[in-house]
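A note from the maintainers: we've had questions about how concatenated examples are separated. There is no special marker in the raw files; a new sequence line simply starts the next protein. For clarity in this README we add a label.
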Amino acid sequence: MARRPLVARSVPALRTIVSRYRAKRETVALVPTMGALHDGHLSLVRAARKRARRVIVSIFVNPAQFAPTEDFKTYPRSFDADLAMLAAHKVDLVWAPSVAVMYPADFSTKIAPGGPALVGLEDKFRPHFFGGVATVVSKLFLQTAPDFAIFGEKDYQQLKVVTRMARDLDLPLRVIGVPTVREKDGLAMSSRNAYLSPSERKIAPLLYRVLKDTAAAIRAGASLSATVAQGRGAIETAGFTLDYLEARHAETLLPAQFAKDGPLRLLVAAKIGKTRLIDNIRV
């Protein structure tokens, strides 16, 4: 039976454990999660293990990145199952603070990210989101003091926001992006996939197919704007409510008009039923 990882629930307990690692000059990698783990998260754990002697996984459903109309209370939570998965992958430490630990009653400081956080993608539809992400991630970085922080590329705008924040604040760590892990039919793995009904689950992989077809057409020389517009139409015809399908510069996330404006990234967000899905691919 795999050894259960240590679990820290207070900042002093966490720092005591991390100080032991540092006393031995061991490198540390952090994998921030909100729990409800799946194979996509485990790919991040494996990437962390390749880079560091010690792996810390944080499990914290962050209320600061949910709007009042979003699914904070119903967000999937499966802590015991998560621990079993992390034990099987030989994670050293799980950082699992409560909301009261992370945000005490007198908490009053927030980070307001700019740059890739204000480009009209997720920030247009969830204006609260990246402030909540930047605040909690900065706290996680300061609490765990990692050498590496591992994030998935599925949340591509988030990856760019966190990378810029770490650079701008001179945080002594390297943010690493790991490619999206997909189901056999191409659907990007996400904890929110559990919300999909059987009929919605059959339709959901169309997002990835549209991304692939759009990227292939752009690479073949088709008009960028016309091809993206065609992709938007295909998504809406399939029954999704589309928030955006955009071709953006892969680093700045600023809008692109021509393929030569690259490197390019296609990013999409759409709802099927009550479930909002996001995805992206490189062009």
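[label: protein 2]
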Amino acid sequence: MKFEWRGGPATVVFESSLDPVELQHQGGDLWSAEVELPERFRVTYHFVDADGDEHADPSNPSAAGPNRSIFSTPDLEPQPHWPVVGPDDLFDLPSLRIRWNGTLGRKTVRVHQAGEPVVLLLDGDDWMYVHPAVAAFESATGDKMPTLVFLPTPRDRDAEYSDPGLWQAIQDELLPLLADNGVTVDPSRLVVAGQSLGGLSAFNAALDFPDLVSRVACQSGSFWWARELPGHGISLDGPAGGDTAERLRDLDLAGLRVAFDVGEHEPKMRRHCEAVEELTAKAGAAVRVNRSPAGHDRVGWRHALVRDVAWLLNDL
């Protein structure tokens, strides 16, 4: 694939799986690079100029926010339900805004009110400002559109998403606050969706708070995480499944419903996810497993998000 940029020196940077590639001067103001991409690959990328500024690809109409672009190899079908949006497109924000001042500090939670049930989206800022989740769910569900609750991305994702205190606060503080604003959450019908560290948090919430969370969409969950590893648990080379795998060996998870997804192009993540997938199924949960043609990249997770939420709700 040829990537072209007009201006000065620049580098093309990929969200995951590939190293940055420096563009070569082709004469005039044209710079370009031929990059060999794997088969079945969808990726977010951007250009970085000599000043360090980040830019979407001006020749690519498919963007993810103001300074990212999306590329898919020709062997992939378009992602259903997700509209093609440009870098200058702005999305309508969910109309209900709730101020949550509690044990986790001050947060602003947005809610797109529709029907039951409720889908709680971790890292909700990405699904509001970068990828148009409301439009995608409306396209996928039609008149069965669920209510979407967008939980803001925490400042310290590592700390908040590895702490069960998040879910204690959601149970004790956020759910009553939602109810006060006309959004009643039935825990038996609640779907929680998270990616990466958010996927780890969503899944562990089902272990710590089974009466609150019993339906989980987990994309590329960070199951490498372990408290005793160096670097506060950040090590992809540790035991497969990290602390989560150890917890699963003695649990009965009948009643839990989990949709797992991980990228075809993130091999170091796959062994951790596979360990948790297998142990979860052995513990009695209803499990669905898929692989997205992407790396550790929200452009792969977004199709999995809509598909997996639909599966989690198909018995209601």
